[in-house]
Amino acid sequence: IHHSGHSVGIPKPLLITCYLHAHSIFFSATAAQDEKYQATSVILLFDANHLTACNFRKRWLLGWRDAWLQRCGVDKWEERGEKEIEEVVRGEFMWVESLVTSPLFRHAKSSTLWAHRLWILRSFPDTVSEGRRDTAAERLETELEIVMKAGERHPRNYYAWAYAREVVRFLSCRKESNGEYAGGGMDKGVWKHSMRMVHECCLGHPRDMSGWSFLVFMVDQKTRLSQCGKDSYKTEIEETVRDIFRTTQQFIQKYDWKGESIEWFMRAAERFHIDSSD
């Protein structure tokens, strides 16, 4: 096994040997559930789209929570249970992140792993938050950073950007602890920052249609996001969208850029009735 900083390199023959051993444990009738759970880590490292192994991890997480409640009772959940489940779920969340943002081609574009990450976010929305990343709006920024990293690892990563769309839909409809919708929070700054963050990524990879298509999706959210927040924010949102199209037009003119992806994005300005001229 090769080590370089925080990275680990496993020779393919060794990984195959580990996979065969983990496979035998996973399908063993006598192996414990925790052993099978550990075995799925090796299985999914070798085969990123092993749906059976991924579904087992979902059942294991739910089973761990139910077993804890049955063992300790509901009255102790807030005192100890929430903290313990947070450690388990965050560990799972970080494990999936390490795979989808890795240089491994099949993992970064694995629909199974991205769907698993979305399931965790939907099933344990309050648990996956960490420290300062404790609001739905800030969680969006975190997930977009992960998606963009995966997109840089492997261009045209439609699975990653499709995941980002689902995250936006979920977090926009979810209520915060103060009772306000997360969409309102995005309208107050995070949505604007996310738009500029993704746009910068798209300009760095102008031939990648997957990123541009997500940006159009975000532009399409502007009307609903304006309605979620106060009317005073509507002008700021409209100006942000115009500025993004204007900056893209300047990019095309500066580099005399020719490309289907960026031209398709500019045509969207007409559909949204946006004036991108200076």
Instruction: Tally the beta strands.
Output: 2
Q: What letter string, H or E per element, gives the SSE order? A: EEHHHHHHHHHHHHH
Distance between the termini: 56 Å
- Return the average pLDDT rounded to an integer: 84
Portion in beta strands: under 5%
What's the helix count?
A: 13
Strand order of the largest sheet: 1-2
Helix/sheet category:
mainly alpha
Considering DSSP H and I runs of 4 or more, what fraction of the residues is helical? Answer: over 70%
Described by the principal axes of the CA atoms, the overall outline is globular
Characterize the main sheet.
2 strands, antiparallel
Question: Taking Cα atoms only, what radius of gyration do you get, to the nearest Å?
Answer: 22 Å
Report on this model:
This protein is mainly alpha-helical and 278 residues long. It has 13 helices and two strands, in the order ββααααααααααααα. The protein has a two-stranded antiparallel sheet with strand order 1-2. Helix 2 runs antiparallel to helix 3 and helix 11 runs antiparallel to helix 12 (234-255). The longest helix is centred in the first third of the chain and has 24 residues, at 77-100. The model is unreliable at 177-185 (pLDDT under 50).
Topology:
Blueprint: E1 2-4, E2 7-9, H1 12-26, H2 33-46, H3 51-72, H4 77-100, H5 105-108, H6 111-123, H7 136-153, H8 158-173, H9 182-204, H10 209-220, H11 222-228, H12 234-255, H13 260-271
Antiparallel strand pairs: 1-2
Helix pairs in contact: 1-2, 2-3, 3-4, 3-6, 4-6, 6-8, 7-8, 7-9, 8-10, 9-10, 9-11, 9-12, 10-13, 11-12
